[in-house]
Amino acid sequence: MTTAPSRYSFPSNPVADPKATVTGGTKDKGGYRFTVLTERLLRYEWSDDGGFEDRVSTVAFFRHFDVPHFTVVDKGGSLEIYTSAFHLKYDKKRFSSDGLSVKIGDDVWRYDGKSYGDLGGTARTLDNADGRIPIDPGVLSRKKAYAVLDDSESMLFEKGWIAIRHPGRKDGYLFAYKGDHKAAIKDYYRLSGKQPVLPRWTLGNWWSRYHAYSADEYMELLNNFEKNDVPLTVGVIDMDWHKVNIPAQYGSGWTGYSWNKNLFPDPEGLLKEVHKRNLKIALNDHPADGVRAFEDLYKVVAKALNHDTSNGAPIRFDCCDKKYLDVYFDVLKAALEKQGVDFWWIDWQQGNHSRIPGVDPLWVLNHYHYLTSQRSLDMLEKPITFSRYAGPGSHRYPIGFSGDTLITWASLQFQPEFTATASNIGYGWWSHDIGGHYWGIRSNELTARWTQLGCFSPILRLHSEKSQWNSKEPWKYERDTCEVMKEFLVLRHRLIPFLYTMNIRASYEDEPIVQPMYWNHKDDAAYSVPNQYYFGPDMIVAPITTPHSPATLLGGVTAWLPRGRWVDLFHPSLVYDGDRHVRIHRTLSEIPVLAKEGTIIPMDATPKLRNGVTRPTDVEILLVVGADAYFELVEEPENEDSSVDPPLSSYVRTPISWKQKEGVLSIGPEWNGSGKWRQWSVKIVGHTSTPTKILTPSYSVHTDVNTSCTTINFGNVHRWAHGGRFEVHLGENLQLNTVDMSPRIHEMLYRCEMGYQIKEVVWQLVTQNRDPVEKRVARLWELPIDDKIKDSVMEIWAADSRAPGSAKGYEGCACAWTTC
After folding, report:
1. What is the pLDDT of residue 816?
2. Same structural domain for residues 168 and 210?
3. Are residues 555 and 692 in the same domain?
4. Is the dihedral of CA 803, 808, 809, 813 positive or negative?
5. Whole-prediction pTM
């Protein structure tokens, strides 16, 4: 049996600086301890036995902060603590709502033993969810100036192994941040630990299906993806990889560790072939039933555990038995990993109880699977697991599996909000069943919209149930849906240079890739669009999660745009003024992804994408002009550090900058790289007239202009050419195109399924009537046509205040016009 000492060793620093603590009480009457971690973060503890907890909890790995400034006033029978952010009052008795309070600004928290964070966090699973479900609190609030994270019941770790709490102790954290959401999250990560860096391959397309594949069928599946030019990075094989139809005396077939040789006669050969296609392989594991006598490794596991096999007694799953867990990893799973399994999908669905009160099996599985995966870094590059959310602190064990989702519009409609609010508890890497798992209906439109959401989700994993009627191969859908799915699966792969940089940003800068709008804007309106989110620092995604209008044949979503000017990356002929709500309408092939002026997005421009991921030799820069822009492309260290967390300075970095006034785009110099050649191009989104001039000598360009964008190909550029920087002049003070309303409105009306005569009335009213715009908007709303048509007209008419005849500012001229 191999050993994995690293499984019981992980970074932590759980003991606070004594200078930050205020302690009192006695062993007989109970004691209190307050730890001022920052001027806005307070730990509070009560203990019946007078002792306090300094061990690592699942929430808190790092309690040793620099000591902040605070003042203590001890009046004998009462205690007060002051910082610049809060004022604590305490009667020195067992915690109660009357005896312990903290004033933050004009708000007061009174102890009640509960967690509180009204902006929500996330939930353990979306199993059986058909729409919105209750979610646990995060550490952010809007209604109150504080959030509270009660940690009294969480599991502990002692010398690397699980431990339990002493009874009669209360333990919690008060986040007194008054709406400073990002500061609260950063301090939460300081307390709990950062999000780890994911390996690059996790950011591509995953294939998963609950289906009894044979080896030949699985290879045929991969062949079909290649024939359809859809790249993959991960293949997940659900539970039918192992023996399922087992003798009745053994119970359920959900748990298994022996290959089904009828389907996979040569497991090693299959895994080798999959690896040749540059895919990582994960197997599903339902571990609850332990190891039973029909398993190939039953006797080997039994011998390691001194288990009597004479009567074929099962080896029970016991997450609280360290010896069992060692054998589970180092005998049972190590044998399968030796055959070629890269990582594990942990499908624990049996609740949060074990034989030791307070020990949740999901916590144990997630924690030790993640640490054990370090032994496979030669294949994985970074530690990884794939499992459900266990509670606050779970962000340390990516990637999250959100459970078996229903195939309904309501399920799709909740997922963007669910993903965004998860960041409120630091959980940034959800993997959803894209397209839904089971039940529901077959809908081409629903599947297309879900795939678009998946493209702009932390992880894109297509999935479906065990049914002859349900699978997510794009070519099994109608032509339009097939093309949309393929387009967005390819786009996801092309976004990997951007996604990997966001991955580094999430870990080293505490910025999850998906963030609710209110993280970056204090406007009340930022809270009114829970399904809308930032994807990186400059892109806003407003997914369409409802069926299209039968009148316009367009899907719609209400978005809120912050101040400034925004362009839709998929529909660059429309430029929007911000600081307002906008009803956005799009065909099936488009999802609203809006970028602000001054945005740079690097993409893989490899002409024909293949499975797997490597650093691209062809890079296209999406550039949105109108303001200065900067993006630092980050890639793995070329001399990979053997440590799990190399210093940020070791990563390869290529700065890309745009100077708006001068009109100069600069690429490089590349830091820490080997100076290889790359093909570079820039696509100026929403701008069409560019007098290009190369400032770096000896290079030429090719320019391609269409109706809404300019693409400039720089050709082969050496990373270190001319001092390491390549510069091109694209034109001084370039601006986004002014919206040409007439062709846009004509195109939209032409598609509408409405009477031809009334269609002409609308056209004349919007484009040729000489009356004031305000009156024409009011007349539009009086017309006897579907409101979705009016919404679609107004979107274009009021998009850009620079456009002649724009209705911007008159959207509210009729009571029928609503923005939200």
Report:
1. 37
2. no
3. no
4. positive
5. 0.96
